[in-house]
Amino acid sequence: MSTAPMELQSERVIVQAPLSFTGSTKRILRLTEPSRSLALKTVVGPWWKGTLRVLLDSLLVLALGVLMLLAWTFIAAWYLLWGIFLVPYRLIRRGDRNRKRDALQHREILDAAIAAQALANKHVAGRD
Description:
- This protein is mainly alpha-helical and about 130 residues long.
- It has one domain (about 15-125).
- It has helices spanning about 20-30, 45-80, 85-125.
- Helix 1 (about 20-30) runs antiparallel to helix 2 (about 45-80).
- The two termini are about 35 Å apart.
């Protein structure tokens, strides 16, 4: 019996800027994660339910493609008009997001160490 490892909160942090091609794509694709209502799902049942799910999933993929195209068009226009002026600001904000992710990773490591120590103390106390 194998279980998938739990995703850590620091792994969910998107470091790229929302007004970057990579950052906007990651945020749009996050809509399709299993925990979201828009996630692609499997269907067990009659053939027409499977067909309906395929059609709905196809519409979802099409909608995400259109949303990504619109976002990328807006981002390209934004960079052409204002992008060069915002480079220092974007570098500062990226540093803030990196520090946020690093702080989350540090907290997760501390939590894991505390849990391991508590388990060891419980094991030692059980021997006495």
